[in-house]
């Protein structure tokens, strides 16, 4: 056996996610002829108003009509091998697009966005990880009012991933372009880890999480997250954010990212520009203020004057970063669409709908770059995977990165928040975002609750072993011994064995003599004959 491969020494792989970056690519098509159909009327239906209905032309003559929130349908499906599968559903909606929740084997995997289907037709709605054998799929009503006919499962396609390193700001500083080039160079190949710091007056100091990570793992994350929330005219105060950002880049050799939870007065109609307001009387929630977001776009309004003052204060902070040669990934006006549609926003900046929001983003971009001459920002924009999400996109010329915030450890199916363990890598969400924006922008995970397991990152095509041709595993110091119920062979083959490539065990590159050296990351010809292994390197 002779293999040309890239040699990885010691552990199986090393990875680094842009707040955390990325994976691979597009959804496949709908199911091919001959695929197994699972009729929804054969599943377990829970709900008082949801029922089977006879529909002429339906696959099995019947459909399941979901109406009210909290209702659910469970189906058991079978697949021969564990892996990722595209979930295709034939359905019709009652009056426009809908969003429902999807659970796989008892764990929530996110929302499924169902486009407006006046007539029954099949669509690919999610990419999910399934175990070999039986799996339970459950659709839980969120928006309801959907008629489900059948579902099929197909194996997905993974085209090559590519995205531009061109920045929207053509006058970007050299440091900013260099950072963007680096992000593009690792995109789809590695994961860059990140950690958000706590806010001022939080339960502990700014470095608490970072010290914990360093003490636990021996390393610091590459990206540190900040928030300019104290840069506001109401109650803002100096909290050293910019100084810590500069130190993280200059002293720790890291990358910085920042959001901006800019608040407005709850009683804006009574507010005088420049007045100080206690933090309890400020808010970013749309239902707690009479602030009219649409009026920010109108010259001469109090809303416009207030927002431009906020931008002036923010620009003063960003200028300090630019003067210090510090680029940042900037994520303002985040999570604007919120729960989906035109009126689901959780923040005042999305209160007036997508059209106003896009103009607000453009005003922010142009004011900071053109009026204040700030060119040290990589502009990151938050998206969702709803049918309406692209309506909120400001445009390629104003966005550098598309981001998603992952919170899938909270189950709302009972009407209240229940925390559940969920270590999915939500790979399907990534693929959906790549498709939504044509693969032109890098896709990042900007916020997350749980951290996916390594197994799920690989299973969901996180790209760790994208070009692997074989594994060469050295003989460990604890050779022949079991730890936590696994020996060396079981531990390695449990991960490496899934890739259908040769796995060479007990090579003399481990902890035991003769410990032959290998060059990690180099290409080599590897030959194995009669128990002997040979590495041949060529200098080029």
Structure summary:
The chain is of the alpha/beta class.
How does the overall form come out from the CA principal axes? globular
How far is the first residue's CA from the last residue's CA? 24 Å
Q: Report the uncertain regions.
A: 1-34
Q: How many extended strands?
A: 27
> What would you report as the Rg, rounded to the nearest angstrom?
26 Å
Task: Give helix % range.
Answer: 10-25%
Structural class: alpha/beta
Number of helices: 8
Content of β-strand: 25-35%
In the sheet with the most strands, the strands line up as: 13-14-15-18-19-20-23
Mean pLDDT: 84
Largest beta-sheet details: 7 strands, parallel
Task: Give an overview in words.
18% of the residues lie in helices and 27% in strands. The chain has helices at 174-186, 208-217, 241-250, 302-323, 354-371, 427-436, 454-459, 488-496; strands at residues 2-6, 38-39, 44-46, 51-54, 62-66, 72-79, 83-93, 98-104, 107-114, 121-130, 133-140, 146-154, 194-196, 223-227, 255-259, 264-265, 282-283, 328-331, 377-382, 401-406, 410-411, 418-419, 442-448, 471-474, 503-507, 523-529, 532-536. The strands form seven sheets. The chain has a seven-stranded parallel beta sheet. Strands 2, 4, 5, 7, 10 and 12 form a six-stranded antiparallel beta sheet that branches. The two termini are 24 Å apart. Residues 1-34 have low confidence and may be disordered.
């Amino acid at each position: 056996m002779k293999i040309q491969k890239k040699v990885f020494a010691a552990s199986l792989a090393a990875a680094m996610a842009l707040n955390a970056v990325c994976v691979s690519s597009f959804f496949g098509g709908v199911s091919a002829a001959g695929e197994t159909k699972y009729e929804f009327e054969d599943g377990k239906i829970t709900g008082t108003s949801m029922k089977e209905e006879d529909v002429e032309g339906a696959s099995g003559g019947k459909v399941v009509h979901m109406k009210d929130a909290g209702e659910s349908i469970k189906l058991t499906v079978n697949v021969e091998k564990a892996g990722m599968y595209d979930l295709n559903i034939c359905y019709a909606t009652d009056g426009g697009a809908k969003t429902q929740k999807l659970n796989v084997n008892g764990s929530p995997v996110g929302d499924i966005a169902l486009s407006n289907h006046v007539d029954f037709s099949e669509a690919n709605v999610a990419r999910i990880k399934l175990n070999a054998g039986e799996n339970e799929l459950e659709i839980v009503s969120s928006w309801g009012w959907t008629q489900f006919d059948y579902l099929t499962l197909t194996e997905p396609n993974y085209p090559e991933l590519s995205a531009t390193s061109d920045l929207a700001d053509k006058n970007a500083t050299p440091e900013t372009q260099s950072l963007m080039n680096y992000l593009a160079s690792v995109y789809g190949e590695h994961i860059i880890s990140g950690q958000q710091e706590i806010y001022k007056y939080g339960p502990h100091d700014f470095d608490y999480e970072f010290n914990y990570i360093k003490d636990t793992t021996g390393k610091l994350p590459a990206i540190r997250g900040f928030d300019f929330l104290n840069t506001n005219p109401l109650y803002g105060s100096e909290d050293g954010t910019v100084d810590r950002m500069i130190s993280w880049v200059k002293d720790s050799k890291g990358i910085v990212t920042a959001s901006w939870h800019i608040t407005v007065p709850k009683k804006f109609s009574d507010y005088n520009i420049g007045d100080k307001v206690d933090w309890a009387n400020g808010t970013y929630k749309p239902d707690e203020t009479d602030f009219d977001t649409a009026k920010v776009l109108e010259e001469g309004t109090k809303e416009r004057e207030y927002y431009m003052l906020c931008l002036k204060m923010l620009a003063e902070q960003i200028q300090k970063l630019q003067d210090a040669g510090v680029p940042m990934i900037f994520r303002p006006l985040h999570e604007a669409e919120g729960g989906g549609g035109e009126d689901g926003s959780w923040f005042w900046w999305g209160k007036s709908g997508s059209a106003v929001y896009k103009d607000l983003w453009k005003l922010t971009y142009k004011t900071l770059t053109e009026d204040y001459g700030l060119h040290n920002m990589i502009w990151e924009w938050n998206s969702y995977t709803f049918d309406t999400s692209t309506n909120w996109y400001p445009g390629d010329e104003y966005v550098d990165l598309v981001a998603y915030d992952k919170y899938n450890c909270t189950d709302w199916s009972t009407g209240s928040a229940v925390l559940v363990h969920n270590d999915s890598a939500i790979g399907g969400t990534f693929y959906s975002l790549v498709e939504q924006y044509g693969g032109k922008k890098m896709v990042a995970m900007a916020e997350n609750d749980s951290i996916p397991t390594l197994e799920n990152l690989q299973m969901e095509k996180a790209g760790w072993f994208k070009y692997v041709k074989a594994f060469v595993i050295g003989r460990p110091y604890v050779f022949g011994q079991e730890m936590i119920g696994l020996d060396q062979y079981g531990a390695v083959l449990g991960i490496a064995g899934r890739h259908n490539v040769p796995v060479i065990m007990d090579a003399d590159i481990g902890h035991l003599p003769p410990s032959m050296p290998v060059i990690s990351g180099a290409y080599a010809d590897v030959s194995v004959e009669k128990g002997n292994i040979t590495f041949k390197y060529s200098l080029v």
